[in-house]
């Protein structure tokens, strides 16, 4: 089954994943791990990444099941807010803007947590293209994350 998943769900920002397959996999994981909160991307996928958007689509497709149908009843879904390019790359300065705008949850990382996130990203050398180096320096997502209930 792992081979099927990797073939059908390639890590590629231009590939849309099958929402039905992904929805099934997500629900199986929620049930197996008794998960009561799912955090995912919003419809913008933060950067227009097709894989991220597909994940949002799959979770949104199942939101009624997650909230009302046992064994998933009561599972909540938070979606990470996509922001415009300017806000995306003003790092900690976006904390001020984020605090003034409506949202259901706001996470502000400490300096230690930000450094931990940067170290984690650096573990994935294949993902560290030139633009992700800029991301590590300037992204607001390494400092502040605003989310909305789906």
Unreliable residue stretches: none
**Which shape, going by the Cα principal axes?**
globular
The number of distinct helices, counting runs of at least 4 residues, comes to 9
Question: Could you tell me the mean pLDDT?
Answer: 90
* Class of secondary structure makeup: alpha+beta
> Order of strands side by side in the largest beta sheet?
1-2-4-3
User: Termini separation (Å)?
Assistant: 30 Å
Radius of gyration: 16 Å
Q: How does this structure look, described?
A:
The protein has 150 residues and is an alpha+beta fold. It contains 9 helices and 4 strands, in the order ααβαααβααβααβ. It has helices spanning 2-8, 19-33, 45-48, 50-61, 63-68, 85-88, 94-100, 111-122, 130-138, and strands spanning 37-41, 76-80, 105-108, 144-149. Its EC number is 3.5.1.89. One of its GO terms (molecular function) is N-acetylglucosaminylphosphatidylinositol deacetylase activity. It comes from Leucopsar rothschildi. This is N-acetylglucosaminylphosphatidylinositol deacetylase.
